[in-house]
Design goal:
Structural class: alpha/beta
Number of helices: 13
Number of strands: 6
Number of domains: 2
CATH architecture of the largest domain: 3-Layer(aba) Sandwich
Radius of gyration: 20 Å
Shape: globular
Order of helices and strands: EHEHEHEHHHHHEHHHHEH
CATH class of the largest domain: Alpha Beta
């Protein structure tokens, strides 16, 4: 059998972790996480990191491997993934990758461009400008430095605008110069398995998961990180809503409602991202045996 990377993807809360562990156990292999929020060691409750018991069942990689103070990107993940996969394929014909970060899955598959790293001071400069002067200020900068990307980027997404600006300033070239959309060859096969279910069933699972996070101590986790509130890692669902509650801007009840609502919206965006990919075979999470059979047939 040729080396194969099996990617189990799907929206937040759909059950990727449990299914991936069962499949990894069946094939006696290891799991590579591509959930960008689970990379941060300081964040576990709000990012639904696998439990200690789950981590004991199967070896996981790229969970809690960096700090919220570290700079990380899809390009760096691609480099780290390539090094790790070469080592793991020495002892395994098949590896499991799982997570909900579409950009990082694309990075593993060779579908992102070679974008250089940037000086953290440049990033901090534009983040501070956004905080102090607002979105329109950094939009203006982007229009001047890279009008092509300005005309295609989501102008409401400050993170993407800042990312483009930091590349422009660091390299002296427009960000759009690096977006060539060339797929890199991989020396292993890639098999993508998507998890899907009825929207109402998924939303119910998401709501329960948020309630569990609150019960598990999400508020205390956020309070322990409040001094790092300006870090990009904390500008994410579950953390930003609790920060607003701590600041007194909204009630605790409202914060929980917003986490559920924003998690559902995030799930919808994830689904939209993946439905453009015609190479994904879709299953319900309860179809474990069908998924195993599919993998076995495809890797004969």
């Amino acid at each position: 059998m040729n080396n194969t990377l099996v990617i189990i993807l799907g929206p937040t809360g759909i059950g990727k972790t449990d299914l991936s562990i069962d499949i990894a156990l069946h094939f006696d292999t290891e799991i590579i996480s591509c959930d960008s929020r689970q990379f941060y060691r300081e964040m576990s409750i709000g990012t639904a990191v696998p439990s200690t018991e789950q981590l004991k069942k199967v070896k996981h990689h790229f969970i809690g491997n960096i700090s919220i103070n570290d700079y990380y990107s899809a390009s760096r993940f691609e480099q780290d993934f390539i090094r790790l996969s070469k080592d793991l394929f020495m002892s395994h014909d098949l590896l499991i990758m799982t997570g909900g970060s579409g950009l990082y899955i694309d990075a593993a598959c060779g579908k992102i461009d070679d974008i250089p790293d940037v000086d953290s001071t440049v990033r901090d400069k534009y983040l501070r400008k956004y905080i102090d002067e607002g979105l329109e200020s950094i939009r203006t900068d982007l229009r001047l430095l890279d009008s092509d990307y300005y005309n295609q980027v989501d102008l409401k997404n400050h993170k993407r605008i800042i990312r483009a600006l930091e590349i422009c300033e660091t390299t002296g070239k427009p960000y759009s110069y690096f977006l060539q959309k060339k797929v890199k060859e991989r020396d292993f096969n890639i098999l993508k398995i998507g998890l899907e279910m009825e929207r109402q069933e998924l939303y119910h699972r998401i709501n329960i998961r948020v309630d569990d996070m609150i019960s598990d101590g999400l508020e205390d986790e956020v309070k322990s990180l409040i001094e790092h509130r300006d870090k990009n890692a904390l500008n994410t669902v579950g953390y930003k809503e609790i920060i607003s509650f701590i600041d007194g801007d909204i009630s605790r009840k409202k914060a929980i409602e917003l986490i559920k609502r924003n998690s559902r919206r995030y799930a919808k965006r994830q689904i939209t991202w993946w439905f453009r990919d015609k190479n994904i075979e879709w299953f319900h999470p309860r179809q474990k045996e069908d998924i195993i059979y599919y993998i076995e047939e495809k890797t004969k």
